[in-house]
Write a structure and sequence with these properties.
By secondary structure, the chain is α/β, with parallel strands linked by helices. The chain is about 45% helix and about 25% strand. It has a single domain, classed as Trna Endonuclease, Chain: A, domain 1, CATH 3.40.1350. Helix 2 crosses helix 3 (about 20-55). The two termini are about 30 Å apart.
Length: about 150
């Protein structure tokens, strides 16, 4: 609702001129996917925070996102969920997709993580709201049922 109100207040004149359906298609729908995706990333970080507080995960020093910038290769990016341990990081990529995450997508994400040489990665994992088309060792996998389980 807050998203709709924000767009409504910002673009009130457009709403009157375009009509509700066209306004939604032009202004709200493109931003809504990004908004939901970002919120899902936050929910995933909250999941790990709950795991640590409940004693199900040990040794976590910090929970957040990991941003990198490699000017020499003109690359930068973000890993959605980063768990910091004394001996390195667990990196998780969170995806809010309508369909299961594919192995091709998983391989692309793994290449991105492995390209960051200064980052000591203990484990790579994936969180996909609608699961995975296939799973491959040695990665960790969580889906919507895992994240939203009532424990």
């Amino acid at each position: 609702m807050a998203v709709l109100l924000y767009f409504y207040l910002q673009e009130c004149q457009c709403l009157a001129g375009l009509g509700a359906e066209s306004f939604y298609d032009e202004y709200i729908a493109p931003a809504l996917t990004d908004f939901i995706s970002r919120r899902f990333e936050g929910i995933c970080r909250d999941y790990f925070s709950h795991q640590v507080r409940s004693g199900k995960m040990k040794g976590v020093r910090n929970i957040g996102s990991y941003y990198y910038d490699d000017p020499a290769h003109r690359k930068n990016g973000e890993f959605d969920v980063a768990l910091e341990f004394a001996d390195g990081y667990e990196i998780y990529e969170a995806k809010y997709y309508a369909q299961p995450m594919t192995l091709d997508e998983i391989h692309r994400e793994v290449q991105q993580v492995e390209a960051i040489k200064e980052l000591t990665v203990k484990q790579i994992g994936f969180i996909a709201i609608n699961g995975f088309a296939e799973r491959e060792e040695p990665y960790l996998y969580l889906d919507g049922n895992d994240i939203f389980a009532n424990e």
